[in-house]
Design a protein that fits this description.
This protein is an alpha/beta fold. The chain has one domain: Phosphoglycerate mutase-like (Rossmann fold), CATH 3.40.50. Helices cover 30% and strands 21% of the residues. Strands 3-2-4-1-5-6 form a six-stranded mixed β-sheet, sandwiched between helices. Helix 1 packs parallel to helix 2. The two termini are 28 Å apart.
C-alpha cells in the first residue's frame, strides 16, 4: 500500500521586484503551516519523506510542517516540482524509491490540485487553498511506478480554518 500527501504551500507575499521563486510566506502563512503541523501530529501523521519544490514559500511550508511533526523526517528539495506540469509530477512519483510507503509532496497550484484530482477516485476540489492538505491511499499498490489515475482513496482533505 502506498500513500501520497499533497500540500499546497502556505500563503505568501507578492513583493514587487522579487523573483517568484524567492517569495516568502506572509504572516498568515507563517501561522497556518505550524497550525496544520499540530493537527497532523495529533492525528499520528508520520510520512517517510517530504519532497518540496525549490521555491522559498514551498520550502518554508515543508520545513514548518515537517519540524512540527518530526524534524528527523527527511526533506528533499526538487526543482522539478517548481513550475511543474502533471507529466512532471507523474514522472517524479513513478521514480520514488519503493522503500518509501508514505510520501509528502509540497508544491504549487494549479498542478498540485490537478494531480490530486487526477489520482483520486473522486474529484476533490476545483482549487486547493493555500496550506491545504490532501492525502490519498493506493490500497493495491506496492510500487510507485504502478500509481495510476483515479485509483487513490481520499483519506484526508484539510485546510486552515476548517
Amino acid at each position: 500500500m502506498k500513500h501520497i500527501t499533497f500540500i499546497r504551500h502556505a500563503k505568501s507575499n507578492h513583493i514587487m521586484g522579487l523573483r517568484d521563486h524567492d517569495r516568502p510566506l506572509n504572516d498568515r502563512g507563517l501561522e497556518d503551516a505550524p497550525t496544520m503541523a499540530e493537527r497532523l501530529k495529533s492525528e499520528g501523521f508520520h510520512p517517510d519523506v517530504f519532497f518540496s519544490s525549490t521555491a522559498l514559500r514551498a520550502q518554508t511550508t515543508a520545513e514548518l510542517i515537517r519540524n512540527g511533526i518530526d524534524p528527523q523526517i527527511p526533506l528533499e528539495e526538487h526543482s522539478l516540482l517548481y513550475h511543474a506540469f502533471i507529466n512532471d509530477y507523474t514522472s517524479f512519483i513513478h521514480q520514488v524509491e519503493d522503500s518509501y510507503e508514505h510520501i509528502v509532496i509540497v508544491g504549487h497550484n494549479p498542478t498540485i490540485t490537478l494531480m490530486v484530482n487526477l489520482l483520486a477516485r473522486d474529484n476533490v476540489t476545483e482549487s486547493m487553498p493555500t496550506c491545504s492538505i490532501v492525502s490519498l491511499t493506493f490500497e493495491d499498490c506496492s510500487s510507485w511506478n504502478a500509481i495510476s489515475p483515479h485509483t487513490g482513496m481520499i483519506t484526508r482533505n484539510a485546510f486552515p480554518g476548517q
